[in-house]
Amino acid sequence: MANQDDPHLLGEADFRNTVHSFEFWFEAVEGYLHGRPYGVSPHVAEAELTDRQRDGLITTLCNYCVGETAALDASSGMIGFAPDRRAKIFLATQVVDEGRHLEILLHRLSQLGVADPDAEIAARANRNLLTFRDRLLDFVNASDWEASVFAQNVILECLEFTVFRHHSGTADPVTAELLRGIVSDERRHMGFGENDLGRRLIGAPHTHDRLHKIKRDLDGLVLNTFVETMGELGIPPSEQPDLAGDYLGAVARLGFRT
Q1: Considering its fold, how many domains does the chain have in total?
Q2: 241 CB-side CA count, 13 A
Q3: DSSP the chain
Q4: Which of 139, 162, 217, 243 would bridge with 148, disulfide CB 3.0–4.6 Å?
């Protein structure tokens, strides 16, 4: 595709047509999915985990499944009230991404010996994340485009991008590789949200104020999720990355500060 390597050289309309297309999506994901069933190269070997490490990883992956299921439900629901065809097409690619993420996370749980993933997810789900999911789906059920895009493609995707990126740096080899593939998708999903809302926020102070209030309401859920995730992974406080700082910095790119 022309300008696939650098779509930023295009004008605004052509840029949006390009990066929101199935063609762009297919070429993007093919590079890091080809030859990697369930997101992992066949030559990557399992590492030996202690019982504590395995249990913490299972809990963490269960919560990743909660987030990915929320994104799958939200992005599929948003297609029906998306404002234009380009947004509908992009969300269709995101539905495929979220479905793949959920599938490979469930497959990883089975590799770790989880016989009933649904039961494990229900038992181990983070209450803050479940509340966030409910708030997101409330926006979707109300057909509130701006709030839905902000909660999903900015806040939730930023949360997942931040956690997955840091976790991939310390995880066992199999988990690390599948997370790196997911991170590549999350970056694209965040870009859609930032681009869409960035255009809407120009000259719309009332929209900014409303979304800023939504951010303040959701921040506590996000930050508490970070704290619990680091605990589940067994990372001592002195060695934990600044997930909160990374998250707040990313959201601040749209002008939403604490």
Answers
A1: 1
A2: 15
A3: -TTSS-GGGS-HHHHHHHHTSHHHHHHHHHHHHTT-GGGS-TTPPPPP--HHHHHHHHHHHHHHHHHHHHHHHHHHHHGGG-SSHHHHHHHHHHHHHHHHHHHHHHHHHHHTT-S-HHHHHHHH--HHHHHHHHHHHHHHHTT-HHHHHIIIIIIIHHHHHHHHHHHHTTS-HHHHHHHHHHHHHHHHHHHHHHHHHHHHHTT-HHHHHHHHHHHHHHHHHHHHHHHHHHHHTT--GGG---HHHHHHHHHHTTT---
A4: 139
- Condensed to tens digits (0 to 9), the pLDDT of residues 220-236 reads 999 999 889 888 888 88
In a domain, 118, yes or no: yes
How far apart CA 56 and CA 60 sit, in angstroms, is 6
Q: What is the pLDDT of residue 16?
A: 60
pLDDT surpassing 50 at residue 2:
no
- CATH number, domain of 104, equals 1.20.1260.10
- Distance, in Å, from the CA atom of 243 to the CA atom of 170, rounded to the nearest integer, reads 14
Whether 17 is in a domain gets the answer no
Structural domain containing residue 80: 51-252
